[in-house]
Amino acid sequence: MDVNVLRGVITALSLACFVGIVVWAYSPRNKARLEQDGRIPLDD
User: Fold this and answer.
1) Please, are residues 37 and 31 in contact by the beta-carbon 8 Å criterion?
2) How far apart are CA 42 and CA 8, in angstroms?
């Protein structure tokens, strides 16, 4: 396994993790909780 292949695999895994986090963050089932968490600094 060449170092460039390893870099490509790590890049692909990083992109997949990023896309997974974005999908999770923008999913409708998390909207209410994330909006509530976003208001915490303003509630003080």
Assistant:
1) no
2) 43
User: Residue 40's pLDDT is what?
Assistant: 93
Rounded distance between C-alpha atoms, residue 30 and residue 34, angstroms: 6
Q: Return the sign of the alpha-carbon dihedral for residues 26, 29, 34, 35.
A: positive
Q: What is the residue whose two structure tokens read 């909780």?
A: 33
State pTM to two decimals.
0.69
- With a CB cutoff of 8 Å and minimum separation 6, the contacts of 30 are 24
Q: What is the pLDDT of residues 1-44, one digit of tens each?
A: 899 999 999 999 999 999 999 999 899 898 889 899 999 999 87
